[in-house]
Structures are given as structure tokens and as C-alpha cells.
Amino acid sequence: MSRATETSIFTEMTELARRTGAVNLGQGVPDLDSPGALLSDVASAVLAGANQYPPATGHPALRAAVAEHQRRRYGIALDQDAEVLVTTGATEALAAAVLALTGPGDEIVTFDPCYDAYAADARLSGATLVTVGLAIDGDGFALDSDALRAALTPRSRLLLLNSPHNPTGKVFTPDELGRIAELCREHELTVLTDEVYEHLVYDGARHLPIATLPGMRERTLTVSSAGKTFNVTGWKVGWISGPAELVAAVAAVKQWLTYASGTPYQEAIAGALGGVEEWAKELRGVLASGRDLLAGGLTAAGLRPYRADAGYFLQADIRPWGFADGPRFCRELPELAGVVAIPTSAFQQGVDTAPWLVRFSFCRRPDALREAVTRLSALTAPSARPDR
Ligand SMILES: *Cc1c(COP(=O)(O)O)cnc(C)c1O
User: Fold this and answer.
1) Does ligand 1 lie within 6 Å of residue 230's CB atom?
2) What is the pTM for the complete model shown?
3) Separation of 302 CA from ligand 1 center, angstroms?
4) What is the position in ligand 1's atom list of the atom closest to the CA of 165?
5) 180-195 tens-digit pLDDT
6) For a tag on the chain, would you pick the N or C end, based on fewer CB atoms within 10 A?
7) Average pLDDT over residues 75-95
8) Pairwise CA distance, residues 324 & 304, whole Å
């Protein structure tokens, strides 16, 4: 699907939600609270005069907090000056890394479906995005390591991993990460790993950064961000960390994109990261309840939700309602049920083997989710649904 088509479906669905008064479970924008101290720390930082450019590599306090976070949570030791770079959201970290490390003739390998910025970043750099479909395995998604092996060529330069994964809610298992790492070492690939949902992992699932696997630290750039962790997506404070020479290459590009941004936000997030474990535990409780509420509602309405171990989104199979095509379903759902969702095909870059998947987001307040579930379950009687 072309970039133009993707953009139009997001715009179209947002417009449809507005026009029909449908509950918008299309977008991944949380309407949940942020830590109160974080909000007042930003206000204090602004009033105290933290309003000029920070260093191009980021506020020293935030670089220190990120290094400490990686050490404490994952045992990854980082030099806060040479191996951590603060960026304008994870978005800029990903773009700057792709621009720094790839160019025309290079191939970037990623898993399909994928976050839509990856294809755009590849286009900006002139590299080719090669996608490997995630396999559907029972009620979840799995790595197809044969397909990954088959996708690697002498032109493969970068493996772009996203775990926990958007849009599926998959957390790559230690075994899957081990197989990916082995192929990356064998083919001498650099890994760019997008871990913005690192704190939003539910039930028994565990997030393992690929940088912690043997032989991977020296070839991995790890990206994360404050947006999803603290419900502050509008602040756009992200970071990238890894070996000094790779981080320096990313910094060289980043300085000509934004140079630097968000001094008071960086300062406040530096303070919040130390207490993130307590905060994230509470947020996980809220999100996991939202997920359960939505999954229960989808099931009651006769749709088939997939397991989401992390993040903001649930995938649902729409075939039980007689639909085979996600975009068509999503265009009709606001009329049918007063709910908006996004077809997973919008995140699909390669051949779409599951056009019947639709993405619903649960990063919403319980009242919005309850309203969506009530509307969906009004359609449980097969007679209330269109016959296809
Ligand atoms: C939201 C999101 C981002 C963007 O993060 P920002 O910090 O807002 O730039 C990147 N990757 C994934 C997978 C996301 O869901």
C-alpha cells in the first residue's frame, strides 16, 4: 500500500469518527493521566528559565538518567556522554539512524506489519525496505526465522526491530530474539531496535532488549521515548543509545534535523525516569484492564481478538462478521456500531496475507472503552449485522 493511501485511511477514519460521533479507537493517542510531579516539574523548569537550547546531544541530566535506567533495568552499561543521544521523540532517533547508516543500494529488513515511519525513513535515505511477515500462530504472532533468513542478502545493512511491537502487541520471546541475533551476527548487520513500549508489557510477558544478547551490544542502537511511558506523546522527548561510533554517526545527522529541542521537558523527564518502575506498574494495570475490557467486548460481539501482551493495540479478526477486507469493515463500522478502528493493512508494507485484521486501540479512559464495548455488543445478534 502506498504512503498516500495509508495517510488517507488515518485521516478518513478520524474524519469519520468526528462526523458520526463514533468512539475513536483508531488512533494511538492516550487520553490517560501523566504523573503529577512530572507535569509540575516542567512548569517549574520553564519558570526557572530552562528555555534555551540544551546541548545538541541532550540535557546532561537526561543522558545520565537514561544511562542509569538501562543499567538498572537491563544491566546495559553506557557512557552517558558518548553512548546516549537525546532526540525529538523516538521518531527523530529512528529517522536520524536510518539516514546515518543506510543509503541507496542498502536494504533495511523489518517485520510486517510495522510502524509506518519505517517505510518513510527508508524512502528518505534511498534504501529499500525489505519486509518479513510475522506468522500468525494461534492467538498471537510469531517470528518466521526461515523467512527472515531468506530475506537477508549481501545488501542487507540494518535490521529494524520493534519489540514490544506496534501494531500487534507482540513481545518477541528470548528464543526469537536469540534467532534474530544469530542471523544479525552471521550477516554483520547493525540492529536498530524501537523499544518505546518497553514499560507497557502485561501479564507474565517480559521485555528483553536485543542489545543484552551475546555479541549484540556492539552492533545495536536502542531507541526509546517518554511519550508512551508517561502519557506525554506531545512532548516528543526520545533517546537512542549504543556504541559510541554509531551514536556519533546518528548525532551527526540529528544536528541538522532539529539540532536540539525541549529543554524543560528533558529536564523534567530526567527526574521522572528514576521513579518509572512504580509509575509504570500503575499504568500497566490501567492499560491491561482496558485491554481486557475491549477484548471481552470484541469477543462478546462475535469478533476474534488476538492476544496483546504489550502496548496500546489489539488485533481482531473480522471474518466472523462476514467481512474479508479491513478497509471496508472500518469504513462501515462507524455506521454499524459507532466505533472507529484502523485496518491493519495500513501498517503492511509487503504482501498482505491477513487483510481481515483490524487494529483497535485501548489506550483510552475506561468510560470510552465501556461505551465502545456497549455499542459493539448491541450487534451481537447475527440479525443485527449485515449478511455477507
Ligand atoms: C509512538 C511510536 C513511536 C514514536 O515515538 P515518539 O517518541 O512519539 O516520536 C515510535 N515507534 C513506535 C512503535 C510507536 O508506537
Assistant:
1) no
2) 0.96
3) 31
4) 13
5) 999 999 999 999 999 9
6) C
7) 98
8) 13
